[in-house]
């Protein structure tokens, strides 16, 4: 159980991070759509506050709405098929002044309600806000350079080059899911899975490795640009010569194509868990590096950097088997479709959080990106995207099944 002071502190930190990210968009860009399939940025400005108000004050504590139109307008995001386009225009959305007025009232109401609100609902609101900090960060990445402001301390660095190799992972049993404590609905249903021996690449696939695939006809990653026969990378706030040793970010479709081209495979969710949290003997670890909290910084997450770093960085965060960066520096695709565990029960106040994505198009990603909050790095946390979704900070590594 967290104290009320601890809850208020974490909520304040999450709010401050979201406020910072929104401040990096120019006023004009707030009404644009950097990712065609998603809402305009203005939706997210109102969404995080509407979510808190709806979940905590309206649906849990039964408080009367002070702006029912905005409660509904900003209630839920969208997840259309990749390549689709939305039909709304900037004029369809309320002014920033109106949205900020609504947000202020929502925050004040939530702050007054924290003493009586159930802790799991407040925890849900805080983690939802951290999720949207990450979503908004990669939307910011897709915004044109003229449409955003560069903060201080955001310069990218290349880092040490890797010596690529595969590491043998012995057979073992992994724990998927959880039984108790806070988690999202798809995390529950703890169970054991036996994983046969396999080998996994020590590092995520890098830009340098993927470039050879591109030169032989592979799909070009979304953040790459070719100019004057040289490859450049769109970083969060700039364009730089393609860093060879950073992880490449691609869709699952393209990651699978690379693995097929290389004569390899992508890991399952269970294989990821075995490599990340398993040991030669004894119980599984809480994090790849052991039991210690991620607040000590064992990787590129929690906004340590806006962009990736070399796949060789943060070696103190390696798993017990010596696999690098299984948490941080980019989510990692698995070939496990997003499905519920046995006994799945949706949250009463958020029944569609997971269930509407249980299909053959959404797949599990594990680990974390540079802008993933520490609280989302728990072993049971499951993220997911459509297999063709190319916009998020998701990379991959390969396995060799034995």
Automatic annotation (TrEMBL):
Which Gene3D superfamilies has this protein been placed in? dinb family like domain, paralog of FGE (formylglycine-generating enzyme)
**One of this protein's Pfam families, by short name?**
FGE-sulfatase
Domain of life (superkingdom): Bacteria
The residues the entry assigns to the signal sequence are none
UniProt domain Sulfatase-modifying factor enzyme-like: residue ranges: 165-400
Xref: PANTHER family: ERGOTHIONEINE BIOSYNTHESIS PROTEIN 1 (PTHR43397)
Q: What is this protein called?
A: SUMF1/EgtB/PvdO family nonheme iron enzyme
